[in-house]
Specification:
heterodimer, A: 9% strand, B: five-stranded mixed β-sheet, two-stranded parallel sheet
Chain lengths: 208, 233
């Protein structure tokens, strides 16, 4: 399932001392460590994944260990949007608006099969992956994922945050949707991403 | 009249022995019919069609044009007292002549009765049935949902518009048999239309201005509403 509009792939070797000054890399280290260990999540829980998310936040698994003890129920004070559960089309403008209300720097975790791909809900009402609405940094598979799975995704996001470079000019660009359609990625790519796969191809066997 | 249908009136329950138990060994068909079915036939005659009893639940097919009168009588008559409307929905069958049925689930709490009314809508007939909103306020969202999913118009409903799908949705009525599972439009077009909908339009000033909570709204909102501001599309 290849995308028609393939993004430009830029490969860089991670060797900061060879590329930048010692002061800049130390500053990056400091800023990134501060950000990575104090991510404030904005929980966007719509379904059963939110129950696992609550279990992750509760005492046994306790994402406070990752600096995430403060759930930010206002998007304006949040760093990472955790979308847990399916998103119907009616909720799509709400999710887009919440994402736009979050200040930079911001990240997004798509938790579970439904948020990542529509999951088993390959029907008229459910968005086939929230990456068609907002940019996503980490996808956590599972239906729903165990708390360990979400914590692994959080640690992957922390790794990503720790590798950010202040000298990267593209880092804090707010993605502007196409003004005509309001979409981030081209419509043919959305159609191709939303094509049925796995068991859902059999849903159309009656011809309807 | 079987024991199952003895009336339980206020004050009578305390002396009644023993407490009613969940009925067991109910016949699949031809069980004891709800006595309201015969009462309906005596009252309305030709407007009442056939009666079915399946798993102890009575279904009465009625004429659509008389439905509001029938439900009003069931609600008001002291021998019926159907005071609880638990569902309004519709079913579409793969039947070329009578594809659609609209279903009302009525419950009489004092008499412990359950009655299901059905109206059959034939092919080519207008998808219209009378609203029971004036009798049961709980019919408000049931009928809106039924309109949203099947396109059945409930005449007399004061605010008949979509409730589950957004108001600008115009792909059709999702629970109809001719509606494809994934919708009629491509995914990108569906997403484009969904993102173009304004989420605040659902909480319009019109709705707020007639809401019961109007007095509790913040002062600035009240000022904006009384100043004539409207956000609806």
């Amino acid at each position: 399932m290849g995308l028609t509009a393939s993004p430009v792939v830029q490969t860089t070797t991670y060797d900061p001392p060879a590329q930048e000054s010692w002061i800049a890399t130390r500053l990056d280290f400091l800023v990134n460590a501060a950000r990575a260990y104090s991510l404030w999540p904005m929980p966007f829980g719509t379904a059963c994944c939110a129950i696992e998310f609550m279990a992750t936040a509760a005492s046994r698994f306790d994402i406070a260990r990752f600096g995430m003890e403060r759930m930010s129920f206002s998007p304006r004070q949040a760093d990472v949007l955790i979308c847990a559960g399916r998103v119907p089309f009616k909720l799509a403008p709400v999710l887009r608006r919440i994402w736009l209300q979050m200040p930079q720097p911001k990240w997004c975790i798509s938790m579970g099969a439904c948020a990542s791909s529509g999951g088993m809900f390959d029907n008229y009402a459910v968005v086939q992956g929230i990456d068609t609405i907002i940019p996503v940094d980490v996808y956590v598979p599972g239906c729903p994922p165990r708390p360990e799975g979400l914590m692994y995704g959080i640690m992957m996001l922390q790794e990503k945050v720790k590798r950010e470079r202040l000298s990267d000019g593209d880092l804090r660009h707010e993605m502007e949707p196409d003004p005509a359609s309001g979409l981030y990625i081209p419509p043919p790519a959305i159609d191709e991403l939303s094509e049925p796969f796995g068991n859902s191809v059999h849903q159309t066997r009656s011809g309807l | 009249m079987s024991d199952q249908f003895q009336p339980v009136l206020p004050g009578a329950a305390a002396t009644r022995e023993p407490a009613p138990a969940t009925p067991r060994d109910i016949a699949y068909r031809d069980g004891a019919a709800n006595p309201s079915a015969d009462a309906l036939r005596a009252q309305f005659g030709a407007a009442i069609g056939r009666t079915e009893v399946i798993w102890g639940e009575t279904t009465v097919y009625v004429e659509g044009a008389r439905l509001a009168d029938i439900v009003r009588w069931l609600h008001d008559d002291p021998a019926q007292r159907y005071d609880y409307l638990s569902d309004v929905t519709a079913v579409e069958y793969r039947d070329p002549e009578l594809p659609l049925q609209v279903v009302w689930h009525l419950r009489s709490l004092p008499f412990r009765r359950f009655l299901r009314l059905k109206v059959e809508i034939g092919t080519g007939a207008p998808l219209e049935v009378p609203s029971v909103w004036g009798i049961y306020r709980s019919a408000d969202w049931f009928e809106r949902e039924c309109y949203d999913m099947f396109g059945i118009r409930f005449t007399g409903h004061p605010d008949l518009r979509r409730i589950l799908m957004w108001e600008q949705y115009h792909e059709g009525y999702p629970l109809r048999k001719d509606f494809p599972l994934r919708g009629r439009f491509s995914r990108s077009e569906q997403l484009r239309q969904a993102l173009a909908a304004n989420p605040e339009a659902r909480y319009s000033m019109e709705e707020l201005s007639i809401a019961d909570a109007f007095e509790d709204l913040p002062d600035d909102v009240v000022r904006r509403i009384t100043g004539g501001e409207r956000t609806g599309e």
